[in-house]
Write a structure and sequence with these properties.
This protein is of the alpha+beta class and about 1100 residues long. The protein is built from 32 helices and 31 strands. The longest helix is centred in the C-terminal third of the chain and has 110 residues. The chain binds adenosine-5'-diphosphate (ADP) and magnesium ion (MG).
Length: about 1100
């Protein structure tokens, strides 16, 4: 088996003393010391936890630690108080066993801390939820309240519990806390009036004075100065590490959480204040005439304030401090009190007031925290009772406390040591007896009904006659003389006569934890716990409701003449109840050990620890454990718990439980020396065997859970499936029904449609036949009618004039046409081809003819006109046509040239004698002769020249002399450039490289520009050997002047110098011609 973690892992020393080897007191202490030095303050003896007080906070109580120990086996992790708390809580929750946690140890050993740790652990691991959290919070917060009122600083412990506390926490079946009940045992009330040296009064007094607001103090009539109060010891008023003021706030807050009303808190504080005031009341003697001393109150101020606080009439209280009334049957006797008696009365009142207030607080807290439901619940009791006390001066209180511890030891012995051994015997298990000290004899010495010390004390208290502490001691000396554990100097047992450590007024008891010397002084008084009736009656008269409640015996209507039970008697009774209560529960032990007497960390005083280990019987505890078996369990629950680990016992074992367990153990192959079979229980020697079983069980439970889950899931799925299947059938049935219905309806409607179509078709067919028949009949009738008509008309035609219309029509048309043509002849337009007139058309129906006639007439008229032309005229018209092709819509000058006839020879060169010479120079026929302006290349000025054009060349000659200036053969002319405007400029551009081109191109201007260029073009067009002459019409062209190329640019300008065109050489590249805008 693999155990993941174990107490044995990383162990310092030995975690469980049962495993200590060799076992001796020294090794035991060495182990404790070793562990303590390594901050391991917890050590086990089996299931008992030994806790060493570290006197400093260790990081082992974190939430992480809580999680670590939660739901883990006791022996799985290193020893810790949490492991015990977890074990207790789980067996309470899972096995339904009521638990009690018994925390024992000396004063200051860490019991109260341990009880708080247990409670906080349980609070952390139990259920959560608003209601549960409230309960938890209230349970936890009851601690600070009770500690404030019931704890005090003592020489042993700065926060020593001066009362015993047993708290039952109640849980429901789930393990959620429901509430709790607190029982308190014997508050050490003498502390209220007097504190031993180096100790303090109860915390609450100091907390109130240092923590309350000024306002509160004023209301309570208190002064913050501690030295003003007789009841407060001053030598240790301030305690290291205790912040009274902060604690006061904590307490008030806790009271609020627990459920105290604001006025209840106020009442409580008033009572606390009243106790302080009470301590300040002082008495002085006053002699009376009869020789006796009476007491008088010295300063009535405190008395007055106290009475105001509690709502008591001052005179009533004053009287109660001066007189004592004794009632006996029918008599009432008043005696005066002397000063000592008055002080006694005062202190008795203070003690009673405080202790009753404390009991009231416990009752009030119980009211708040009690479980709200009546249902059965499980209980976990936590006992934190004052530890064993041995002081220099031990009195009644120590006697009582030690008695209580004696009883606890008894129960420990009973429940563990004796019970363990007896059990082995009972179960018939082989066993060697272990010697241990049984303290029953000491308990008997104290509590025996007849001759126990308490019984004798009660007897003394109730005895008539003079009773003193000395008479009580005498009685003890007589009766207990022979008891082994009783020692007294004057006892009848003479062996102590010479024992000087035993003073005369003392007796000594050998407690299980050591010898304690008790001084008898005060035993009788404290046991009586008398409060003069006058005082309780005075308290009852108070208007303060709480104080009235606390002193019910003061009610004059209910005077009870019987003596109240003594303190010893009450305590014995309550301890008895407690013991009976604890015996019904499963005990869990925490044994607290104090490592040193100095409240110091890191100090391990061996003698002190040895002493505690001894009287706590820890060694015996270990021995018994080692001799025996770590674990036992009755067969039935054992079988019940582990039966799933074996096939034969699972799920049911029919035979006796013991046999079942035997089968189980055999099946699991647990070694035989690891366990023994008792009569009713199985005993398991080693915790490991138990872990093994538990681990197997845990695994098995997991498997079982899986199995259950599997079966459940299977069942769930199957039922789901069956349900689905059933549903599916229902759905399918419904659906089929629905589908069939639909289908039927469809078929039905289809049938209706088909039927209606067929019927329609049949009806139409019939109709058609009928119609046809009818038409046939009609046709027959019509044919017959026509036939008859024709027959009749044929017979009667000769009698009609129906043909006359056509003849009249034809005749009329003939007449109209005749008239039309004759009219046209008389209104014929002129023969000019440009004549536009044409007579109007008389009838619309003649439209086509009329237009056609007009066209024919026009064509004929043009033909006639053309036939009159001569050859020359024809040539002129051809030239005009060509000019229009070249220039129309391209040059603005063109329109003005249309009406001018192209004369050609303007100079009549052959007839004019002036040009005789020139005429002879040209051998060809002159086609054109005119005067042109030759534009000077340098300045743009014009010079008149005669321009002659023949079929082969053009010639430029002087106008006056007729001398030829230039003659250029036409093939050398490449192109002519003109502007688009209305000017007469034109450039004749010559072929580059030809002879004529040496001087450059000619820029000329003429009024007959259109004619000249048309003619030049015409010559080019007729000459078959030459290329077509280029005519370039643009407002900007280049002209070659000698070497330079000059741009001739035409601009439209405002008319200057009349309407003439001006030409200017702008620079050597530009010649600008300004043409006036044509109007
Ligand atoms: N587990 C612990 N961790 C730290 N300090 C502790 C622990 N137990 C006790 N103490 C210290 O010891 C002091 C006395 O403990 P307490 O429980 O009041 O003793 P007891 O109730 O036995 O008289 C505490 O006030 C605290 O300072
Ligand atoms: Mg305590």
């Amino acid at each position: 088996m693999e155990v993941k973690t174990s107490l044995l892992d990383n162990m310092i020393g030995v975690g469980d003393m049962v495993l200590l080897e060799p076992l001796s007191e020294d090794s035991f202490l060495e182990n404790l010391r070793n562990r303590f030095d390594h901050n391991e303050i917890y050590t086990y003896i089996g299931s008992v936890v030994i806790s060493m007080n570290p006197y400093r906070s260790l990081p082992i109580y974190t939430p992480d630690k809580v999680e670590e120990y939660r739901n883990r086996n006791f022996y799985e992790l290193s020893p810790h108080i949490y492991a015990l708390a977890d074990e207790a809580y789980r067996s309470l929750r899972d096995q339904d066993k009521d638990q009690c946690i018994l925390i024992t140890g000396e004063s200051g050993a860490g019991k109260t801390e341990a009880s708080k740790l247990v409670m906080s652990y349980v609070a952390a691991v139990c259920g959560k939820g608003q209601e549960v959290n409230k309960v938890k919070e209230q349970l936890l917060q009851s601690n600070p309240v009770l500690e404030a009122f019931g704890n005090a600083k003592t020489v042993r412990n700065d926060n020593s519990s001066r009362f015993g506390k047993y708290m039952d926490i109640e849980f429901d079946f789930k393990g959620d806390p429901l509430g709790g009940v607190i029982s308190n045992y014997l508050l050490e009330k003498s502390r209220v009036v007097k504190q031993p040296r180096g100790e303090r009064n109860f915390h609450v007094f100091y907390q109130l004075l240092s923590g309350a607001s000024d306002d509160t103090l004023k209301k309570l009539k208190l002064n913050r100065d501690l030295s003003k109060y007789n009841y407060l010891s001053l030598d240790s008023a301030a305690v290291n590490g205790l912040d009274d003021a902060a604690n006061f706030r904590t307490v008030r807050n806790a009271m609020q959480i627990v459920g105290f009303m604001e006025d209840e808190v106020q009442s409580v504080l008033e009572l606390v204040a009243a106790v302080l005031k009470l301590g300040n009341i002082e008495f002085k003697p006053e002699s009376r005439c009869n020789g006796t001393d009476e007491s008088r109150i010295k300063d009535k101020n405190d008395l007055k304030e106290m009475c105001e606080l509690l709502g008591i009439e001052q005179s009533v209280l004053e009287r109660a401090f001066s007189y004592r009334t004794v009632e006996a049957k029918l008599e009432k006797v008043s005696t005066t009190l002397n000063v000592a008696q008055a002080y006694y009365a005062r202190d008795a009142l203070a003690k009673n007031l405080y202790s009753r207030l404390f009991s009231w607080l416990v009752t009030r807290i119980n009211e708040s925290i009690k479980a709200q439901t009546k249902s059965r619940h499980k209980v976990m009791g936590v006992l934190d009772i004052y530890g064993f006390e041995i002081f220099e001066d031990n009195s009644f209180e120590q006697f009582i406390i030690n008695y209580c511890n004696e009883k606890l030891q008894q129960i420990f012995i009973e429940l563990t040591l004796r019970e363990e051994q007896e059990e082995y015997v009972r179960e018939g298990i082989e066993w060697t007896n272990i010697e241990y000290f049984n303290n029953a004899i000491i308990c008997d010495l104290i509590e025996n009904h007849q001759n126990g010390i308490l019984a004798m004390l009660d007897e003394e208290c109730l005895r008539p006659g003079t009773v003193t502490d000395e008479t009580f001691l005498d009685k003890l000396n007589t009766i207990c003389a022979e008891h082994q554990h009783f020692e007294s100097r004057l006892s009848k047992n003479s062996k102590f006569l010479t024992d000087h450590s035993l003073p005369h007024n003392c007796f000594r008891i050998q407690h299980y934890a050591g010898k304690v010397l008790y001084r008898v002084e005060g035993f009788v008084d404290k046991n009586n716990d008398l409060l003069y009736r006058d005082l309780s009656q005075a308290m009852y008269k108070a208007t303060h409701s709480l104080i009235k409640q606390l002193f019910p015996e003061g009610n004059p209507g209910k005077v009870n003449l019987k003596r109240p039970p003594t303190a010893g008697f009450q305590f014995k009774a309550s301890v008895g109840t407690l013991m009976r209560n604890l015996q019904t529960k499963n005990p869990n032990y925490i044994r607290c050990i104090k490592p040193n007497d100095k409240k110091a960390s890191h100090i391990f005083t061996e003698s002190l620890v040895r002493h505690q280990a001894r009287y706590l019987g820890l060694m015996e505890n270990v021995r018994v454990r080692r001799a025996g078996y770590a674990f036992r369990q009755a067969y039935e629950p054992c079988l019940e718990r582990y039966k799933m680990l074996c096939k034969r016992t699972w799920p049911h074992w029919r035979g006796p439980a013991r046999e079942g367990v035997e089968v189980l153990m055999a099946d699991l192959q647990v070694p035989a020396d690891e366990f023994s079979y008792g009569r009713s229980k199985i005993f398991i020697r080693n915790p490991r065997t138990l872990f093994f079983l538990e681990e197997r069980r845990r695994q098995c439970l997991q498997d079982l859970a899986t199995l259950i889950q599997k079966i459940y899931r299977g069942w769930k799925c199957r039922s789901q499936f069956l349900l689905l299947k059933k549903s599916q059938i229902v759905v399918a049935a419904w659906y089929r029904r629905y589908a069939q219905q639909k289908k039927y309806q469809k078929i039905k409607s289809a049938t209706t449609v088909v039927q209606s179509y067929t019927r329609g078709w049949q009806a139409r067919k019939l109709l058609r036949e009928l119609k046809y028949q009818k038409r046939c009949e009609e046709a027959v009738t019509t044919i017959a009618a026509f036939w008859h008509g024709t027959q009749v008309r044929r017979e009667y035609r000769k009698f009609f004039r129906a043909n006359a219309g056509k003849k009249i029509y034809e005749f009329t048309i003939q007449r109209i046409m005749q008239k039309y043509f004759l009219g046209l002849k008389s209104t014929m337009p002129s023969m000019s081809p440009i004549e536009k007139n044409w007579p109007a058309r008389p009838y619309i129906f003649l439209d086509g003819v009329h237009t056609a006639l007009r066209r024919i007439f026009h064509l004929w008229r043009c033909k006639k006109y053309r036939s009159q032309f001569t050859e020359e005229k024809k040539a002129v018209y051809e030239e005009k046509l060509e000019a229009s092709e070249i220039f129309k819509d391209k040059k603005a000058l063109y329109p003005s040239s249309v009406s001018q006839p192209f004369k050609g020879d303007y100079l009549e060169i052959s007839k004019n004698p002036k040009y005789q010479k020139l005429n002879s120079a040209v051998d060809e026929k002159v086609l054109l002769a005119d005067v042109v302006n030759k534009i000077n290349r340098a300045n743009g000025k014009g010079t008149a020249r005669i321009f002659l054009l023949t079929k082969k060349s053009f010639v430029l000659a002087d106008q006056k002399t007729g001398q030829v200036k230039a003659s250029v053969p036409l093939p050398d002319l490449t192109s002519v450039s003109v502007s688009t405007q209305s000017d007469g400029f034109f450039a004749l551009r010559l072929k580059e490289g030809s002879a004529s081109a040496i001087k450059g191109d000619f820029l000329l201007s003429s009024e007959h520009l259109i004619e000249i260029i048309t003619k030049i073009h015409r010559i080019g067009a007729t000459a078959a050997d030459r290329e077509q002459l280029n005519i370039d019409i643009s407002d900007e062209f280049l002209v070659q002047f000698k070497q330079d190329k000059v741009c001739v640019k035409f601009i439209e300008g405002a008319p200057k110098n009349g309407n003439s065109v001006s030409c200017k050489r702008k620079n050597n590249r530009l010649l600008e011609v300004s043409v006036p805008t044509s109007p």
